[in-house]
Amino acid sequence: MTVATQQRLTLSEYLTYDDGTNTRYELVDGVLVEMGNEAKINTLIAVFLIQVLIQLGLEAYRIGIKQKIQVASLHASARDPDLIIHSSESAAVGDDASEFCLKLHHPNPMIVIEIASPGGESTDNYQRDYVQKPQEYATRSIPEYWIIDPERAVVKVGTLTNGSYQFQNFTGNSQINSPAFPQLELTATRVLNAGR
């Protein structure tokens, strides 16, 4: 759903935009596009992953929630991923900013994680998570991109290779393989069920 504003917004205006609601927006060619509400399972998965990563020894300050990433794309100016796993360099960016956004010239995070919303291949949700975002994050050279898809019961881990992501699919009791976290001992089922 597109939101009518008086004029196209710049990235700076978007980062400080507040309409008095808790609505999530992404900026598409200067226009606010409503992201819709998260399914309960999506937020449970995000919290579960945070817990797992902290138990692995990842410092909490390197986990980004509700932090935006600027992209160079025809589809969006900035994305609002479910989780960002920062590199030590990207974690040091913008500590004094009231609204965080990793700009194009900033260091990249290690991993961006999207928890897919329901919808078939022709839906905006699918096109955004499976087509647009992989291209946008690859253009930024982010080393890993995860798509966690509860509806399709799959965890896809994409590793950046020659400018695009090569995805490995994990389903059922297959153990997830993450180059950034080789010590990770986690199955797709545990992630998709948020540890339950």
Automatic annotation (TrEMBL):
<dbReference type="InterPro" id="IPR008538">
    <property type="entry name" value="Uma2"/>
</dbReference>
<protein>
    <submittedName>
        <fullName>Uma2 family endonuclease</fullName>
    </submittedName>
</protein>
<dbReference type="InterPro" id="IPR011335">
    <property type="entry name" value="Restrct_endonuc-II-like"/>
</dbReference>
<keyword id="KW-0540">Nuclease</keyword>
<feature type="domain" description="Putative restriction endonuclease">
    <location>
        <begin position="12"/>
        <end position="188"/>
    </location>
</feature>
<keyword id="KW-0255">Endonuclease</keyword>
<dbReference type="Pfam" id="PF05685">
    <property type="entry name" value="Uma2"/>
</dbReference>
<dbReference type="GO" id="GO:0004519">
    <property type="term" value="F:endonuclease activity"/>
</dbReference>
<dbReference type="InterPro" id="IPR012296">
    <property type="entry name" value="Nuclease_put_TT1808"/>
</dbReference>
<keyword id="KW-0378">Hydrolase</keyword>
